[in-house]
Write a structure and sequence with these properties.
Shape: globular
Number of strands: 10
Radius of gyration: 19 Å
CATH architecture of the largest domain: 4-Layer Sandwich
Structural class: alpha+beta
Oligomer: single chain
Strand content: 15-25%
Distance between the termini: 21 Å
Helix content: 10-25%
CATH topology of the largest domain: Glutamine Phosphoribosylpyrophosphate, subunit 1, domain 1
Order of helices and strands: EHEEHEEEHHEEEEHHH
Number of domains: 2
Strand order of the largest sheet: 3-2-4-1-10-9
C-alpha cells in the first residue's frame, strides 16, 4: 500500500518519516513553481522522508500563499525496487501519482496496441515496469480522464500543466493535509513484539528482489495478533533487502 500526500503548507517531519517507514521502496515529490509555471519533481529509491521534508521546508519558505506540494512513498506491489518505478510519472507536461493496484493495466495497453498498432515510447516495457507506469503511458496517449473509470479503491493525484491538482478517489484529511490513506499512522511494534523468537532466524530465498517475481510471498506471516488491526483490514508489508529479516530493526 503506497501513500500520496498533498499539502499547501509545511507538514511535520514525523509524518514524512512514518510514510517512508510504512512504504520503504522509494519516494518522490512534486511542487508547483509559480514563478515559471511549471511542476518541479524528484524521485528515487533513496528519496527519504528527511529529504522530502528538507525540500518541502525550503519550498514553503518562499511559497506560503500559493504553494502546492505532493509526495509519494512506495511499496513495490508491481515491478521491482528501482528509481524508474518511483512516483511521480510524467505524461506530457503533467505528472501522475498513484496509490492502489490496477491488475488489468497491461491488458488495457495491449488492447490499445491491437486497435492502433505499436505506440511510440513503449520501450519501457522491455525492462521492469509497474501498473502505475503503464497508466501514465496510457494517459499520455488519451488523457487522464479514463482514470475515473478504474476501481474505486485506487487513488490518483494528477498535477496538470496549469498548476491545478486533480485528486481522483477518496482522500483523507489528516494533519492539515490530504492523504490517499493513513495506514502509516499505525505502530507495528506491538504487532511484532511476541514474534521475535519464532521469526528471528527467518530467511527468504537468496534471489534478490529484482529476479524474484513473487517476492511478496516472503513477507512475514499474515496472521496479526493485535485486535486493532481488524479495524484497518491491513496486513503489514515488511521487506528487507538483506537475506535475513531482522525484527529488532523493524521495531526501531
Amino acid at each position: 500500500m503506497c501513500v500520496i500526500g498533498y499539502y499547501k503548507s509545511l507538514c511535520s517531519e514525523k509524518i514524512l518519516q512514518e510514510c517512508e517507514e510504512a512504504n520503504p521502496h522509494g519516494g518522490g515529490y512534486a511542487f508547483w513553481d509559480s514563478d515559471n509555471n511549471v511542476w518541479r519533481s524528484g524521485k528515487g529509491k533513496h528519496v527519504s522522508g528527511k529529504l522530502v521534508y528538507a525540500r518541502m521546508k525550503a519550498y514553503f519558505r518562499t511559497n506560503k500563499e500559493k504553494g502546492k506540494f505532493l509526495f509519494h512513498f512506495r511499496i513495490a506491489t508491481h515491478g521491482n525496487v528501482n528509481n524508474n518505478l518511483c512516483h511521480p510519472f510524467p505524461f506530457g507536461d503533467a505528472l501522475l501519482f498513484h496509490n492502489g493496484i490496477v491488475s488489468n493495466a497491461n491488458n488495457m495497453l495491449a488492447n490499445m496496441v491491437i486497435a492502433q498498432g505499436p505506440l511510440e515510447g513503449m520501450d519501457f516495457l522491455e525492462q521492469s515496469f509497474s501498473d502505475s507506469q503503464v497508466l501514465a503511458f496510457i494517459a499520455k496517449k488519451i488523457g487522464h480522464q479514463f482514470l475515473y473509470l478504474l476501481p474505486s479503491e485506487n487513488r490518483f493525484a494528477i498535477c496538470l500543466p496549469d498548476g491545478e491538482v486533480k485528486l481522483i478517489g477518496d482522500f483523507e484529511t489528516y494533519e492539515e493535509g490530504l492523504f490517499s490513506n493513513t495506514y502509516f499512522k499505525y505502530d507495528y511494534t506491538e504487532t511484532y513484539k511476541n514474534w521475535d523468537k519464532k521469526y528471528k532466524n527467518y530467511t527468504r530465498p537468496t534471489n534478490s528482489i529484482d529476479d524474484t517475481p513473487n517476492w511478496k510471498n516472503y513477507h512475514l506471516p499474515t496472521t496479526i495478533p493485535n485486535e486493532d488491526w481488524k479495524l484497518t483490514n491491513r496486513v503489514p508489508s515488511i521487506f528487507e533487502t538483506k537475506n535475513t529479516i531482522n525484527l529488532d530493526e523493524i521495531k526501531k
